[in-house]
Amino acid sequence: LAFMLAAAGTVAIGYGVERSAQEKQRHETVDIYAQSLSKPLWDCDSATAQGIVDTLAYLPTVGGVALKDICAGSILTGGQIVLDSQAHADLIQREVVYRDERGTKYTVGEIQVEFRPVSIVNAAMAILWRYVAIFIVMLVVMLAGAALAFHKIVGLPLGRFRSTIDRHIANDQDAMQDNSPIHGRNDELADVMSAYGDLMAELDLRFTRQETLAQCASNLLAGSPGNNDPLTEVLASVLKTVAADHIYLALADRNSEADLYPATRGSSEIYRPRYQRWLDQFLHHHRIAGPINDLPASEREDLQSHGICSLAAVPVWGQSNWYGFICVQDLQHARHWSESEQIFLQTTADMIGAFLESEKHKLELASAIEKLRDNEKALIQIARHDPLTGLGNRIVVEEKIADALVKARHSGLSGHLLLIDLDNFKPINDTYGHSAGDFVLQEIARRLLATMRRSDTVARIGGDEFLLITEASQSPSDVPTLINKLSAAIAAPIIYDGQILTVGSSIGAARYPSDGTSSVALMARADQIMYKVKQSRRAPLESSVLARISRSN
Fold it and tell me: Which of 95, 112, 399, 539 is the most exposed place for a label (fewest CB within 10 A)?
C-alpha cells in the first residue's frame, strides 16, 4: 500500500511538473509565431502568413490554429481548431502587433492556438518503471533480512540445543542396548535432529540464494544497457549458487552465437539445444526442469549424447515481450530440481527480463528523440523557406541583411540589395491558370540561383517579387552588369505545356550601407527605384497607345 501511494503521489507530482513545463513552452511558442506573423500581416502577405500558420499547426502538440488577418479581412486556419469556441486551458490567444521604426504599435491580427492535452498516461509510464525496479530491490533486501534474523534468533539457539543433546548421547553411549527403551528414544531423537539438520541446510541454501539475488539486482541496476558484463556476472553468480556445470542465456530473436551469454565451471563446451516444444512451453510461461530421463525420447537421446544428465530451463519475460530463456545443465547427477531452486532461477530470469526491457525502452526513446529532432529541423526549414520555390522568405531576408550590414561595417566594403518585380505575370495566371504561374515562378527562381554566386542570397518575399543580397565586395560598376544579366535570364522564353511564356522584370537596387543601415530602409530604397524603372517603361507604352488613338480619330 505504501509503495502504491508513493507511486501515485510521484505520478501526480510528475504530471504537474510536466504540465507546468508544457504550459510555459506553449506560451513561448505562441509568442514566437505571433512575432513572426507581424511583418507578413502588416504587408498584407496572406500567402506567407498561411505558411506560418500551417507550420505551427504541424507541431505534434498543436491541435489547430486560427489567425484573423485584419488587413485582408479574412481568417486563416490550420489543423482542427473551431473559432469562437469557449476559452479553455489548452487554448491560447495572442494579438499580433506590428511596431514601426518609431515604435508605434499596430494590431494587425489575432492568433488562436489550441494545444493537445497533456497525457497523464505518458507521465505515469515514464516514472513507474523505476519504482518497479526499486520495489524488487526492496523485496530482495527484506527477504534477506528476514532470513538473517531467523538464522540468528532461531538457528543459533537450536544449534546449541543440538550440541547439548550430542554430548548427552556420547556420555550415555556405553549404557545403551539395542533393545532398551532409551535406544528407541535416542533413535527418535536422532530422526528429529536429522530432520532439523535438513531444515537448517535448506534455510542456509535459501539464504544463499537471497544473497545471490540481491547481488544480481545490484549488478543489473549498476550496469548500462548494451553492456554484456552485468549479464555475464549474473549468470556466473547463479551457476555458483545452484552448484551446476553449465548455464547460459539464449536470446529469442537472434541466432548468432554472439547472443549466447554462457558461464561454466568445467572445460567442456556448452550445448545449446533448439526444440519447438521448448518454444511452446516458454511462450506459455512454463518451465522445463528435471533429469534427462523424464524428457521426450527425441530430446533425451540428443542431450545424453552431449553428456547432460539434468537441466532446468526457465523463460525470460519482460513486461509484455519474451526475450529468451536461461538454461542450467548438470553433467554429473540426474538431479530433481526443487521448487525453491526453480523459483530462484525464475526470479533471476525475471530480473534479467526487466533489464532487457529497460534497454528496449531506452533504444525506443533514443529513436523517438531522433525523429523529433528531424521533425524540428523540417519545421524550421518550412518556417524559413518559401514552399513553392524553396527560396528563403522574409525571415531569412531579415537575418541575411543584418549579417551583411555587420560584415560591411567591419570590412568597409559595400554590397547591394536588389528588388525584382516580374512584369506581365498576371496575364499568365489569368490565361493559363495558377499552375502555369507556379511553374513560371519556380523557373525564375532556378534562373536567379544559377545567375547569382553561391555566397549571395536569393529570396522570394511576395507573389511575384524576389529579393537578392550580394556580398559586401561588389563595386558600384558591377551592378548594371548584374542587372542586365538578371533581366536577360528572366526574359528568356519559358515553355509550359507546349506554350511559350515570357515575362519581364523591373529591378531596383539599393547600396548598403550608404543607402540605409536597416532592412526597412534598404528595402524601401530598392522599392522606390524599382517603381521608377517600372514607370519609365510604362510611359513610352502609354505615348504609343495615345498616338494610335489620335491617328484613328
Answer: 539
Question: In this predicted model, what pLDDT tens digit does every residue of 149-169 receive, in sequence order?
Answer: 888 887 777 777 777 777 776
Residue 262 has φ and ψ, to the nearest 5°, of -105, 160
Mean confidence (pLDDT) of the chain = 81
d(CA 275, CA 258): 20
Mean pLDDT to the nearest integer, 273-283 = 87
Note the Cα 133 to chain centre separation in Å.
Answer: 23
Contacts of 111 (CB under 8 A, 6+ apart): 30, 33, 34, 37, 65, 66, 67, 68, 93, 94, 96
- Provide the pLDDT for residue 492: 94
On the question of pLDDT at 29 being above 90, the answer is: no
Grid look-up 532398551 returns 180
How many angstroms from the chain centroid is the CA of residue 453? Answer: 39
517: left (phi over 0), alpha (psi -120 to 50) or beta: alpha
Sheet holding 74-79, edge to edge: 74-79, 62-69, 105-115, 91-99
CA distance linking residue 421 with residue 517, whole number of Å = 23
Does the structure show a pLDDT above 60 at 182?
no
In three-state secondary structure terms, 454 is: coil
Residues 461 and 63: their CA atoms lie apart, in Å, by 28
Which residue spans within 397-445 are E strands per DSSP?
415-423
Residue with cell 479553455: 88
Sheet with 465-469: strands ordered across: 457-460, 465-469, 415-423, 504-512
Angle at 344 between CA 246 and CA 265, to 5 degrees: 20
DSSP at 332: S
Q: In terms of Cα–Cα distance, which of 324, 212, 321 is closest to 260?
A: 324
∠ Cα 320 323 324 (to 5°): 135
User: 551 or 521: whose pLDDT is higher?
Assistant: 521
Residue tagged 509503495 (cell numbers):
3
Q: Is the pTM of this model over 0.85?
A: no
